[in-house]
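From: lab user (bench 3)
To: helpdesk
Subject: output format question, protein + 3,4-dihydroxyphenylalanine

Hello, I'm new to running complex predictions and I'm not sure whether the block I got back is the full result or only part of it. Here's what I submitted:
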Amino acid sequence: MTATTDLVATADQLVATGQATIEGAGTLTELEDAERALLGKSSALNEIREAIKTVEPADRAAVGKSLAAARNALEDAVATRRAALSADARAASLVHDRIDLTTGGRGYRRGHLHPVTRVWRELEDVFVGLGYKVAEGPEVETDWYNFEALNFPPGHPARAMQDTLYVKLGRPEEVLLRTHTSPVQVRVMEAQRPPIYSVMPGRAFRRDTLDARHSPVFHQIEGLAVDRGITLGDLLGTIEAFIHALFGPDINARFLPSFFPFTEPSAEFAMTCVFCEGKGCTVCSGTGWVELGGCGMVDPNVFKAVNIDPEEYTGFAFGFGIDRLVQLLYGVDHIKNLWDGDVRFAEQF
Ligand code: DAH
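Helpdesk reply: Thanks, we reran it on our side. This is the complete output you should expect:
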């Protein structure tokens, strides 16, 4: 038989050493290890519990009592230590994981409109200020709108000047990427009756070889005024008004006779070179003028194609390249710079 006093003494001893181990645990993991060693299945405490069987039945209660007290003391010590370690860990994480909300972020860089978009919108604003509406049409067109209704009959030599990109749709050469914004004139006149005052900006496409001033994809803005009593004087005055609105009173417009199937008479128009103010420089090849686009009085055949009576109404039209204008305004030497998609270029404006 084991002596009761021995077991009780061992239990007390275990409490003393156990408490020291528990208090010495530096981390929660160390504490868990200590807990398992002191209170687990293969702990010394458990061995005492097993040994109860070997004492006098009368003394077993006393041993059991001291065993329970020892267990309670150790469990309390573990709980106290665990609370302390958890508090430490929380305090440490408050320091380590702290986010300083006062430093501010890296921020977003603010972008801006592409120069072509900006000039496109400025042009719209100028014409809206003159009482015009803005209209748009499709980029993929039929031969009817791009050519035929504009008085380019099949086989007309003026068609050959526009290096057309055809689309495999419908009859051969029936569907194409519009070569100019002029087809939108036809669509506007089909959709509404005069008086019409509209500008039609958009993208156009030609099978052009890329060079400093030509790109297979480019932008134009078209203008159309149809009313009773519209004259060539109105056309010239309107073009001059928009050039003055964009560039100021010192930049003028010049008109030279030309030919377009959809206008009669037709003219090309140029403006004073903004770089030399008309004195002559390399940009304007020494002429003092830079070409902008074409214009003229709407041909009666175009009116007939859209059922407007040319005896009752007259009108003028004009069209010019937006990219060209941007090149002039911002001094962009090669048109491809506008469309390379290189932010280093776009950021300069
Ligand atoms: N569509 C012509 C072109 O791209 C430009 C043009 C000329 C438009 C005369 C017009 C116009 O409206 O009247 O070459």
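A quick orientation on your result: The chain has a mean pLDDT of 90. Let us know if anything else is unclear.
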